[in-house]
Each structure stands twice: as structure tokens, then as C-alpha cells.
Amino acid sequence: MKLINYPYKSRKQKVEEILDNTDAVKEDIQQFPRDEDFTYTNGYKAWATSIFVDLRESTKLFTEYDDVEIAKVIRGFTSEIIEILRDGLDDKELKEIGIRGDCVYAVYSTPFQEDIREVATRAFYVNTYMRMLNTLLTNRTLPNIRAGIGLATSETLAVKAGRKNTGINNLVWIGKSVANAAKLSDLGNKEGRGPIVMSDIFYTNMIEIELKIRPESKMSSWFTKPMFEDYYHGYVVINDFNEWLNNGME
What is the pLDDT of residues 55-101, one digit of tens each? Predict the structure, then answer.
């Protein structure tokens, strides 16, 4: 491997340019623009919602089972969750989707409460899919898995970060949405909590729009708010999907 020769003296000026020119942040944008509208000097602030689906006890899983078996499990876990999180959306709605270690995540532009409710529905599909996956794993004598599903929403600043002309860049999400969703996913399916854990802001917006659309809805009864905490947790599935599972997936 060739030794590095980082030109720190000349790069100092470039860093100063970055620090002094990153000030064209556009506030109060209703919805994030497409990725090509982001540059290395601008930024956009709007409502973003994040979902993280995090495997439980992944260290034990990776170390106690055959590696080929685990490869099958992980591929079954990631492929369909990615499909559920991205289905039917373009890059103006789905801003980022990916895998971080043993976690699948997505970030959405959610200017309206209806958008937040739609992200919640995707979480319910993921939770139902986990039941389907474990049934298929059991049929093949492969280890079952559990996951925590974290959801959070907030006004979020998005900036493009990386190195110009290298192709190494990504959007960075500055705000509570992504960080809180990651944190909440770690709480799911632990210590008596349900797999789906959502921030109080996410929950409030979801319930408000749910009651506007369906005044008779009992969705609020599906979730529990622990005392002195700022999140709600619960176990929710998609009825027709779940019934299909109950009937043997035929």
C-alpha cells in the first residue's frame, strides 16, 4: 500500500472555504428538493421522518451460528425491508435508504401529516413481515430473529457533505429525526416494550391525521407511553397480511 502524503498546508485553505461558505441554508422549505439541487454550499431545512429497523442480539447471531446460514438470514431480513421502505416512492419523497451494520434505515421528506401516517404504515408492514420471515426461517431450520423499529420526525437541516469531484458524498441530516429514530430502534423488543417505538412528535402527528381520516379509529389504544418517557411503543400488524400468515400463506 502506498504511503499517504496528505498536503495539509494547501488543504487548510480548502477547509477555510468550506467553513466560511456553508451559509446558504434555505429555511422553511415545505419539502426537500431532488438530490441534484443540493450543492456543497447550500442546504435545505424541512420536515423529515426516519425509520430504523435494528436487529436484536446480532452479535450472538453472528458468532453462534454457521456463517452461510447467517448470510441467508441477513439477506432475507434486508432485502424485503428495503422493498417495503422504498416501494412506490421517488427520490423527492424517499431521500435516503441504506444499511448501517445490522440496521436498515430510511429517511423521508414528510411535509404533511399524511406522509407521517404513511411511514407508520410501512413500519406496520415491516413488523408483519418479520413474522413471515421467521416462519420461513423456521421451515428451513434457520435461526429466528427479532428487530426494533424506531420512528421519529422533526424539522431537519439537510446538507451535502463529502469530497467534490470524487463521487464520495452523501446528504447529512442535522436534527432530531435520524438520531432519535436510531435511538428508539434500540429500545424496541426489549424489556417488555413492543417492537415499534415512536417519538412523541411522530405519534401526535400520526394520531391527529388518523382521527381526521377515520374518526372512529382506535389507533391510539395500540400504543403505550411509559411514565416519564417521551416515546410510545406497541405491536401493530397489517390485518390482511397477518390473516394470510394465519391461514398458512396459501
Answer: 987 777 777 778 888 888 889 999 999 999 999 988 889 999 999 88
Rounded distance between C-alpha atoms, residue 146 and residue 188, angstroms: 9
CA 144 to chain centre: 22
Looking at the DSSP bridge assignments, the partners of residue 25 are: 43
Per the domain annotation, does 13 fall within a domain?
A: no
Position 209 in a domain: yes
Instruction: Supply φ then ψ for residue 90, to 5 degrees.
Output: -105, 180
What is the Cα gyration radius of the chain? 21
Q: How far apart, in whole angstroms, are the C-alpha atoms of residue 145 and residue 82?
A: 17
The one-letter amino acid code at 27 reads E
- N- to C-terminal Cα separation, the chain: 55
Burial class (CB in 10 A: 0-12, 13-18, 19+), 74: middle
> Cα(85)–Cα(106) distance, rounded to whole angstroms?
7
The CA distances from residue 147 to 76, 134, 156, 250, in Å, are 13, 11, 26, 25
Give the CATH number for residue 63. Answer: 3.30.70.1230
In a domain, 19, yes or no: no
Residue range 149-166, pLDDT digits in tens = 999 999 999 888 877 767
- Give the domain range for residue 133: 24-30+45-246
**Number of independent structural domains in the chain:** 1
φ/ψ bin of 130: left (φ > 0), alpha (ψ from -120 to 50), beta (otherwise): alpha
Q: Answer yes or no: pTM beyond 0.85.
A: yes
d(CA 144, CA 142): 7
